[in-house]
Each structure stands twice: as structure tokens, then as C-alpha cells.
Amino acid sequence: MKPYIFLFIASIVWMGCSKDETPNFQENKLAPLSIEFDNIVGNMNLQLNTGEYTNSSGEKFSLSLLQYYISNIEVQKADGSIYTVPQDSSYFLIKEADPLTRFAKVKVPEGEYTSLRFVLGVDSLRSTMDISRRTGVLAPGGGMDDGMYWGWNSGYIFFKMEGLSSAAPVDPSGQHKFRYHIGGFGGYSAPTINNIKTITIDLRAGGVAKVRTGRESNVHLMIDIAKFFDHTTKVSIANNPTVMFSTYSTLVANNFFGMFRHDHTEN
Amino acid sequence: MKKAILIITCIALLASCSKEVVDKMFSFTQPANFPVATYHFNTNEITKAKFELGRKLFYEPRLSRDNTVSCGTCHIQSAGFTHHGHDVSHGIDDRLGSRNSPPIMNLAWRTSFFWDGGVFDLDLQPVAPIINPVEMDETMDNVLAKLRAHPTYPSLFEQAFGTKDINEERFLKSLSQFMVMLVSDQSKYDQVKRHEGATFTASEQAGYELFLQHCNTCHREPLFTDESFRNNGIGIGPNNDEGRYLVTLNPADRYKFKVPSLRNLSYTAPYMHDGRFLNLQGVLEHYANGVKEVAGLDPLLEHGIPLTPAAQQQLIDFLKTLNDESFIKNPLFAEQ
């Protein structure tokens, strides 16, 4: 009996909440908000193939591929009220090699937003939906190289990064290549790893987003790959040149929380 | 003038009707002795045009990088849609896979796909062989590009979906249409169970009773699998394939594989996930005397399955009643 009572109370509370939220937003007055994903490595701008970087393990590396999903974007006002972008319009694949994908552009009600929340990856519900609900960037369109989908183990690769490093052992193709393909939505019929990470960004220090019609507020984020290699776990290329669907990937995915930083907002 | 309009209207109605009637007549038939199919027909209703498009795609080598390998390459109808005679399949450039090609039949009742169950929706299944470097080594984008540039596919998609626009969803759902229609339910066993006039011989009947006693828990009739993943004590193969563990990362799932159906066994040798047993005698000999006491061995097999040679023969006689010759010869399922 108890769980039902809890659910009942929870649903009342939830209903109460959502009722309170509505008047804060004029959903018929939507205006553009842009979120810019500017990939960097430490103090340097990220340049695919040509840039040379060193991680905290002292390993020199370059990057040949970097792409990741951003989804389920929410914005929050100073009073705590939250607006969730309609989910069908809230999936983005950021590809370092394609400058056009650098911005996640959404529409939110006019207003001032003090924080921002999004998922790095693809939520589990969408990961199990009918193929008709996985269009655009969610269509399993790529192949082994640039694809963001595991065909053999149905699910999206949330974050894919590859590059060269003398610290990596020679692979069958003769290259000193490292490969990080991080995904895992928790499993469909049996529970398994869940690397879906919700990132929250406080905009107050770097500048709140003032969203209004006729303007495009742009929240400029820096995504620091140096933190991928060292935040809560120090990831060494020599020790872990390939991380894909494995329990170790959950440690790597926790480093995602350190990668995102708000630089400034252009209103 | 009025008459002419009436006649034209009638013809138009008739034309639209007849197309619907044809499509209605062509549908998924639920076998009387099977449980209700679990495939989501509500999001992919069977039509003749979609099925025929799916069939053409199934036999389409353009799905592979160099246009040499189709689904039908490793799933041959006469072999119960397996790669008969191959322990593991060879795909593009004769690259070898790591597992035995499973039969494509009665997929409308499957809840997961592949030996490790890594795919949970039939619509998503074809992506795996297409992008696998040792199978078709292609990208989905390239496959769609090839189909769009093809002289007939755009119009076939238009007939099936009302639009020439070829996308992932329509491509994958067509393939699913063909695959879910591959229903094998005309074996002697089915005819006995449905009281259609067939009867088991004494040996088949004895084998059936042995089956119910020793095999039916995992190879549950009438589909002859309970869809579970189990370690049947064959021991670790040379490539150390960890099976279901690769999907769940649960240590308890190490070396477990999907319980395969026993239907059409005569056409689908060799057996097991790595095709190590060449014939049914080898399989039964394993269960009778060869089960290895490995970590994670299914508790039901702790003592193997005590079967005398005579009992093994009866069991094989019964298993042969699961062969469905009309299925492997049905022209509807063949490359046209």
C-alpha cells in the first residue's frame, strides 16, 4: 500500500509544481536561443589533426574525430521555474569537423534565464522508440567510422573521440590510435551501464541569457577535452587506448561533468 | 454526362477498393498453435508492396560496400535461412565472422536478436550486418544513396509508402516486413498439434515425450525457444566469445547465448553459436556425455541429459518432425 500512497502524494506535488510553472512562460511568444559548443583542450583551441596537445598523464596526442549528442535542453529562470524544449526539437549532434553543427538552436519563451540544463547523450526513452521517432541526427545513418550508433548492441554512442598518440599501442591498421566511444542507456531487457549525463550550467557569472523576439541570445560554452582525460578519473591513453562498451566507460563518462564551462553570453 | 461521371466514380472506387482488398488479403497470419506474435505490427502494418520491397532489399547486394553481399548470402532459404555448412559466415572480401549465422524464421515472436540478444527491435537488426566490417562493411547513408540512385527503387518505395523519398525508417521497415512474414508453421509437428490428419510414428512419439521431459524447459514448444540466454556447458571457444556478457556487462552472463529454436534443424547445420557441432548426433552426444562443469553452467544441465543411444535416436526422429519443407521451398520467400 505504501508505495501507492507515496506515488499519489508525489503526483499531487508534481501537478502542483507544473501548475505553478505555466504562468511564468508565454509559450506563444517563443524566441531563439542558441547554445554554442566550442571545443578546446586546456588553454588551446581544438584543431582536428593539426593540433598537438598533452594530457595530464604527460601523453602527447592529436584528435582526428570528436562528436557528441546534446539533447533534452531545459532553461531555468531566477525564480526556479523551468522551461523544457519540446523533445522532438531537442536533439543535436555536435561535430568538430562540421562548423555548422557547433550551435544547438532552440526556441524558448522570452525571458531571462540564469541556468541551462541538457543531456550529454540520448535519453533511454528515445533510445527504445520506434524507428519512425529517430529521424535527423538520431537516424542510425553512419558506418563504423563516423557513425554514432551501435548496430550490434542497439544504442547510441553518446560521445565519440578518436586520435593519434605515441602513447597508444599500434592497432591492426598500423596506427597509434586511441578510440573512445562512450554510450550505454541502461539496457532494454536487462540492466547494464548507464552513461547518460545531465549537465547543468549556471549562467549568472558569465552572463544570463536574455531571450527576446528579433534577437538571438547565444550562450557560449567551452568544452575542455583536457578534462575528459582528467576530472574524477585520470584517463591514460597508454593504459586505456580503447574504451567502448565496458564498465570502465562509466568512470570516463563521469569526467564529462568537468568538461563543460560557460564562457560568456552574447545577448 | 451524369452517367459518365457515375461510371468514372465507380471505376475509381473499384480501383481503390481492389488495391485495398489485395493488401488486406496479404497479411500476417497468426498460426493457431502459436502464441500471439510480439512484433509491433501497429507501427508497420503488412502490405504486399512493402513485403515485396523488403524481399527485394533482402536479396540486394547493394547493401554491402562492394555490392557483393546481400542478406540472402548468409541466410539461404534452402538452408532454413542460414549459411549451411559454415561454422561462421564469411562476408565481404571473404572476411570471417565470429558466430554461426542464425536462421531467419518466426522472428515475429522474438524479443531479442542475435546470439547475445544485443538488438531488441527487429527494425534495428539490419543495421548491424550492414555496418559490420566483416559482413557488409557499408554505411547506412551509402546504402540509402545507392537505392536513391537506382533506376527502380524510388518507384518501388513510392508504391509501398506513397513517396519516392527513401529514408532509414522505410528501408528498415520494409526489411522487417519480409522477415516477419517468414513464418515456419507447416512442419509435421504443427500438423499433429493442429489435428490436421498427421500422426507421429511410435519413435517420434517416444522422442516427443523425451523432449517434453528433458528439453522443453529451454526449447519451449511451439517456438522451441524460451528466448532466454544460457550456458549449456559447451566450453569456451577459441575466440573467447563472451556472449550475452558483451551486452549486459553482467559477469553472471559470461558465455551465455540465446537458446536457439529447434525448428528446421535438418537444414541448418552446423549447430551452436560457433557452429562447432556438425550434426544432431554431435549435439545430443554433448548433452548426454559432454557437458563441461564450467562457471555459469545452467543448473538444469549440471548432470547433463541422460540419454541412451536409443533414446537419442528417438529424439532425433522427433526433431525431424520440426522440419518444414514448404517453408524452405515457398516461392514467396525466394529471390525473384
TrEMBL record, chain A:
Domain of life: Bacteria
PROSITE patterns (UniProt xref): PROKAR_LIPOPROTEIN
Location of the Copper-binding protein MbnP-like domain: 32-244
Name of the protein described by the UniProt record: Copper-binding protein MbnP-like domain-containing protein
Gene source species: Chitinophaga skermanii
From TrEMBL, chain B:
Annotated heme c 2 binding sites: 215, 218-219
Main location: periplasm
Location(s) in or outside the cell: Periplasm
Pfam families on file: CCP_MauG
Binding-site residues, heme c 1: 71, 74-75
Name by which UniProt lists this protein: Cytochrome c peroxidase
GO molecular function list: cytochrome-c peroxidase activity; electron transfer activity; heme binding; metal ion binding
Signal peptide: none
Free-text description of this protein's post-translational modifications in UniProt: Binds 2 heme groups per subunit.
Recorded GO CC terms: periplasmic space
Limits of the Cytochrome c domain: 202-323
InterPro entries: Cyt_c-like_dom (IPR009056), Cyt_c-like_dom_sf (IPR036909), Cytochrome_c_Peroxidase/MauG (IPR051395), Di-haem_cyt_c_peroxidsae (IPR004852), MauG/Cytc_peroxidase (IPR026259)
Organism, as annotated: Chitinophaga skermanii
Cofactor note: Binds 2 heme groups.
Taxonomic lineage from the root: Bacteria, Pseudomonadati, Bacteroidota, Chitinophagia, Chitinophagales
Keywords per UniProt: Heme, Iron, Metal-binding, Oxidoreductase, Periplasm, Peroxidase, Signal
Cofactor: heme
Organism domain of life: Bacteria
